[in-house]
Amino acid sequence: MAFAPRGAPKEELLRHTRQVGNIIDLNKCMGCQTCTAACKSLWTSREGTEHMRWMNVSTYPGAGYPRDYEKMGGGYAPDKTPTPGKLTTLTDVGDNFKFNHADVYYGGHGQKVHLKPTSAVTGEDPVWGYNWDEDEGGGDWPNGYYFYLPRKCYHCADAPCLKACTHNALYKREQDGIVVLDQERCNGDRLCVEACPYKAIYYNPVSQKSEKCVMCCPRVEQGIAPACDRQCPGRTRLFGYLDDPDSDLYKLIHVHKVALPLHPEYGTEPNVFYIPPFDTTHAFAEDGSITDEGRIEAEVLINLFGPDVVPVIARLKAERSKRQNGKPSEVMDLLIGRNFWDRFKDFSNDPLQEAV
What we know:
By secondary structure, the chain is of the alpha+beta class. The chain is 23% helix and 15% strand. It has one domain (10-94, 129-343): 2-Layer Sandwich (Alpha-Beta Plaits).
């Protein structure tokens, strides 16, 4: 869909010939927030976007980002009926803390005054913020655990945000399936925010319009991977066309079937996939000995990725075992990603050379 008149049917706005997407390996993510910083410095440094993190990384089990988004509804019911959810608040999406820099640096108070945040919403002590519950996790002593979950807009094939918009401000780009939001058409009613079950759309109180991840589409048009993917120091990301049978992305999703969408029960057909975490830290037995079992509880992963996560983890363990025994494993080779550029294939151009 290049651009549709306001009266265009939603099917026309969803139409696309190709679709780009991601895989993120949660076994490698170390929560460094480099992806978050890369996105924020590129896209959300404008007035009214201070609280937004189009790319974010949260600790799981946890409230996630925005806070408790999994309890806010949206998306579709099992019979594909749209189910509008709740609106996020400025506090839910991280607030916009104000600090007493003037008092600390220029007030002449010495050690009597220390740096202190206040909420932009209440002017009081903050009650929530981005990564408020970082590294808390779950499990019982001595088998506590946590893992990091990077999230951004999933550019869903059946995007409920697009269907909810009364002004046709949201549409998928025909050439790559990226969901974009036309600022000229947005009237700020936030029906899209209610509709998105991932709560990946944010409200700008200054412009009074909604905003969202654009998958770095200006870079994608020049064969450059999105900033969050390219800047990841842990080689956790793959990006490319989901229909390219020669890509590592395609092989992991469609051939080996070890990459899963987040919350498939929402029914939106998201286009960002995850390699689920497994055996990241071995559990202790009651006698204090170390077992061969991982600490992450199965129900936590099933809640995130659905029941398919159980056979996927079994498959990943089997592939790892093959490699440990000196046998070939294409899955392990693809996940290791020795050649950084293989992870992006058609999108491996250098942003400095392309002058983006």
